[in-house]
Amino acid sequence: MIFNWFKIFIYHLKQSKLFSFLNVLGLSIGVAGVIFAILYWNNENAYDQWNPEKENVYEVLNKFGTNADIWNSSPVPFGLTCKATIPEIESITFFTGWYSEDVIKHENQKWIGKKIIVADYDFFDSFPFPILKGAKKDILKEKNSVAISDKTAKLIFKNEDPIGKIITKDNKPYIVKTVYKIMSPSSVEPDYVFGGLINEDDLKQWGNFNYTLMVKTKKGASKELVLKKMQHVNFVNRTVKEAKDKGVTPEQFVKENGEILIIIDQLATARLHGTKSPNGANFPEGRGNLQLLYIVVGLSILILTLSLVNYINLATASAIKRAKEVGVRKIVGASKKQIIAQFIFETAIIVVLAIIFALAIVELSLPYYNNFLKKSLTMNGGEFYLQLIFIFGLVIVLAGIFPAIYISNFETLKVLKGNFARSKSGIWIRNSMLIFQFGIAAFFIIGALIVNSQVSYMMNKDLGFSGDQVIRVPFRFTDQAKKGEKYRTAKQEILKFTGVQDVSTFAGSFGNGSTSSSGFTYNGVFVQPRNIEMDYGFLDMMKIKIVKGRDLSPKYASDTVSNWLINEALAKKIGLKNPINTIISSGWGNEKGNMKFKVVGVVKDFHITGLQSEVPPMIFVTMKTLKWNNFENVYIKVSPNNLTETLAKLKTYWEKNINPDYPFDYEFVNKGFAKTYEEQVKQKDLFFILNLVVIIIAIFGLFALASFSMERRLKEIAIRKTLGAETDILLKELSKQYIVFCLIGFAIGIMPAYILLQKWLENFAFRIDVSVVPFTVALVSLLILTLMIVLAKAYQVTKIDILKYLKYE
Amino acid sequence: MITIQNLTKVFRTEEVETSALSGISLEIKRGDFLTIMGPSGCGKSTLLNIIGLLDSATDGSYKLLDQEMVGLKEKGRAAVRKENIGFIFQNFNLIDELSVYDNIELPLLYNNVKVADRKQKILAIAEKLNILHRLKHYPQQLSGGQQQRVAVARALVNDPKIILADEPTGNLDSKNGNEVMELLTDLHAKGATILMVTHSDYDASFSQKTIHMKDGVIFSERFNQRNVDVFMDAK
């Protein structure tokens, strides 16, 4: 039986090679899309799932009062008080919330260690990486302990036993206490975990939000209860005390200054569903891009649906050609079930081919996909193969059942008597599927156009500063106290280089924002502006405008003591109409209490973070005012001529004078800022590629369907021609309905496109408005495509030999 | 009305050349009722198709209303066809997806007849052919005889100069066949010009003149004596 089925399947495959090939191809593109989505989905959902404590471990974040700022760092005494007073908390750890790089030495080897975490307390309780060698408990108890990953151990110590050996970081010796195995994927995958993060000062500072706090609760402890207790710790130790200092009741204090809100994210879901903070990722390995994940999954499902619809359409349409076969089979004794089985069998073969094809497509394009996602996904794992089998089943059910039942329902007698080829049976379902396809195509075209215009808007937006020819060079100088002095010397020397036009610095970077912020209250309004410590001439070099007053200048001695600039956003926030000469009590204190500053100028708003967020309130002081020296980069304006030479000179200078241990590194400011919309550029490209795929599938579907339904009408066309219809009238007659379908499909596609794209645009503080233009363009292009295809086919069928169809059908 | 001189038609395939018509000459006057008979493959359908402008001749001359048709392009043929010729086929060739009314309307649509006139004409012809009550039905819901009457209505609705009937009774039983033949005779009596192809001597006897063809040539022409019946009665 199966052999018989197979023979006839092969016969039909050979009969229509092109259509069969396109059919398999269409289906395999759909399946490939789903495989891509699954790989991404599996990877993102696998984060931290290896961790047996994932349900009990929480990351602590702080939301600052009225300000929407959220930081993934907490003060040390807060963590310690929580641990001491909340019985549900089993252990805590503090660690640097990002990876650092540092020069590591062992005996006479020296290299730059990457993925370094510095931590304190029970880091390996929250991230229980399997311990391969050495101590299993109290690993970071001694300040000079370090734990290293097995890969790192192998790299440094080859086959020796690393335990007890000494490596140095920052010229301080550390004893290797433990070797662990990195479990991947994980929110933290450090190569080194150094101890000694916390020093004596940190223990008392309730105002220093420096390190990331993780708490591990006892099994079964309620998240809400723990959170409530932690919030209480904050209230008692911070709010009440600060209120007391100001001589107001805590309620009054909260009303005026707002309160810090504690947020805890469970590790199990932190990767994808953790709290979004505007200050970068919550974990060193970054956060999962939930939106992109949903986009990829959603679009892949749409594409699979599209290709399934195509398949069903073609299968039912071509089934008519096989009506006679079915009739004969029924007469010689086939039951309905057997007919269904036969056609599902055929679908199964095609789906197997399509999956093989899809796997090939995925295998070939996986490198590009990985590059796009910045991941290294591979196709393996039991779970993946199970999912593949599930897809196989699903596609067979969705694509196969409907045509099979449709075919099995053919009425034997009608079929054998002929005339069936012109039957209307099943036509409405094919047409509605065609409309559905038009809807999807419209959605994709509109989506791509809107995403595209938002991205080009972002690329062309006036950022308020000009980064042309300005490079950012990391300034790694280890002696914090002398860093400012070192910078000034270096500046004088670099300025002498031909090709260097200007040198300046500020504490922050374009695209990533500033490194610090401090809150104060003015006129009863609490603000937490970004602190911009900068060198004289910085605003001028970056072509950032002063809208009122003047820039800070070395000419005025008071500029380094009690004058500052504010930006427009800050002036607006605290309601200053005439900010110049206003005295503001800052968030910084010295022995005389809060430092007071006079506003001498207002800086025009410029973008320091991406266009997703509003321009934050900022204050600007000179480097000499606070002497924090927390700038990390030097900004150099270079001449475009002899750039290579200039860079070479800078490199030599850097390696000789600034830090010999680090390779010289630089980045153009514009390029650095462009990273803030890198993601969107990728989404644009993704949309563009998918658009091509969708349009190709849809066009093929349209062409095939139009072919089938027009060929079904050949006799009608012949009759009409006999009665005097001319070619152009016939063309109109034949293409009319497709234009109507196109319009209906477009109408269906409009709403989801509008709603989803509005939602997408809500990500951006600076965004385009959705106009009618993309909709019009999409409609026109869809109509043109439809007309082209349908008319081509229609023209072909109007050229038929009338006599043949009048006589013999 | 129709003058055919020395008309030939040659079918060419890659290897064989078949001559379907070789030197046919024929004249049809206004009000004639002509029948072409002959065995399968004699060329009678080809001749009918050429006269109906569905096919083109290879050589010779075919004048319809003093206009030369040989060498006319498809577009020109379509224009002449829709104005002057009504077709009746053996297998009716109705469009199944359209109702009886819509089927009859087609020639009027293609001849740009105004809406009001169209309705009037369709109702008139439907009444004449006794299918008024069937206008809303679809072809598949009608008997063969009724379908052929619809086809006749469609052929006549635009008042063509000549009606071409290709075995109009071939798919009908004798009762329905007779009805159709009486219909044609009736039309002829009222002045219509009809050219019919048939296998049946009985059907041919309804016409004025029968032409016999064989292997692409006309080998006999004879007038049918309808008064033959009178002789029979007298005997």
TrEMBL record, chain A:
Residues 20-231, 438-648 form the MacB-like periplasmic core domain. The keyword Coiled coil does not apply. It is found in: Cell membrane. The keyword Membrane applies. Residues 299-408, 689-801 form the ABC3 transporter permease C-terminal domain. Keywords: Cell membrane, Membrane, Transmembrane, Transmembrane helix. It holds the Pfam family FtsX. The chain crosses the membrane at residues 21-41, 292-314, 339-364, 384-407, 428-451, 686-706, 738-757, 772-795. InterPro entries: ABC3_permease_C (IPR003838), MacB_PCD (IPR025857), Macrolide_Exporter_MacB (IPR050250). It is a multi-pass membrane protein. It comes from the Bacteria. Its main location: membrane. PANTHER family: ABC-TYPE MACROLIDE FAMILY EXPORT SYSTEM PERMEASE COMPONENT 2, MEMBRANE COMPONENT OF TRANSPORTER-RELATED. This is Multidrug ABC transporter substrate-binding protein. It comes from Flavobacterium frigidimaris.
From TrEMBL, chain B:
PROSITE patterns: ABC_TRANSPORTER_1, ABC_TRANSPORTER_2. Belongs to the ABC transporter superfamily. InterPro entries: AAA+_ATPase, ABC_transporter-like_ATP-bd, ABC_transporter-like_CS, MacB-like_ATP-bd, P-loop_NTPase. One of its GO terms (molecular function) is ATP binding. Transmembrane segments: none annotated. This is Phosphonate ABC transporter ATP-binding protein. Keywords: ATP-binding, Nucleotide-binding, Translocase, Transport. It comes from Flavobacterium frigidimaris. Signal peptide: none annotated. Gene3D superfamilies: P-loop containing nucleotide triphosphate hydrolases. The keyword Zinc does not apply. It holds the Pfam family ABC_tran. Residues 2-232 form the ABC transporter domain.
